[in-house]
Amino acid sequence: MDNLNEITPLKIHSLKQIQSKHRYPLRLLNTFGFDVFAHEYIAIQTPEDLDHLYNSGIFSQFQFGILGGGSNITFTGDFNGLILHNQILGKTTLESSDEHVIVEFGGGENWHQAVLYTLENQWGGLENLSLIPGTVGASPIQNIGAYGVEIKDCFDSLTAFHIPSGEFHRFNNAECHFGYRNSIFKTERKGEYFITSVRFKLSKKPVIKTQYGDIQAALTQWCIESPTISDISKAVIFIRESKLPNPAVIGNCGSFFKNPVVSDKLIHDLTIKYPDIKIFPAYDGYTKISAGWLIEKAGWKGYRRDDIGVHAKQALVLVNYGNGSGAEIIALAKEIQLDIFKKFEISLEMEVNTW
Question: Is 188 a catalytic residue?
């Protein structure tokens, strides 16, 4: 997928007329709840809408941003361009065998509702990713992950509109270049694609994963010895709700920083000084360390400045208590990054996108 000239475009045509909305409020479309506006806004409800907009020439008139659930965005001010809001829905079973099923979701489908749909059909693979905010279309961009599972583990392929060329392209797993909270859509192809649908290969004979986080502790508490995928989902939901603030109550975008991956030598030195350090396996010679632990250890947990701060129960979450701004959040994040580097010689990377 490195050479776009090798991609066979998928042709879609439309005669639909689409109207943009001027100075559109985005407060309800970003989970931080920032009171900002888009210069122009268009809800994309079908792939054909994108084809029509390309033919209209609108993409050459504005800078544009693609919005899903608004759960991984920090608006630092009004968006002086065109917001394309992914509202493409749909659930389709494409293939089914005794072992597996391939299911396709529209890019605008709510992620958690898509997970619940797979549970209703007893298809395993996404249960550890329950209650992650956002849309299906955003999930491969971030290669979302939690409790020992990442999207890449059960991702089959996706279809996306290439805005510069006006073509629809399909990416398989390898072509997405998945990494830790990363993909080709955050690196060399950043901002080029609008993901219209995503396909997952799920198991009818799922392998239960309980060894990460507090899943096993929750199951033990509930006296569940042989958990189903629905039990795993319920445990994940219970854990997330106990640790993470509800954006409807306190504005936030979940984990603000990535867990850094550092050398085993540094981990060895830190473990001597901090026996309670929270670490996870990464790959040979390197270990993943909890960003939340670092921030809490540095004394930032529960910090508040006017209407922004660090959540009192989860230091990895920056929050807007009502009237904070994205610029203030980013300024706080940079202070935290600097402090963590001074104290631990570890660089924290922001997980969110900044507009």
Answer: no
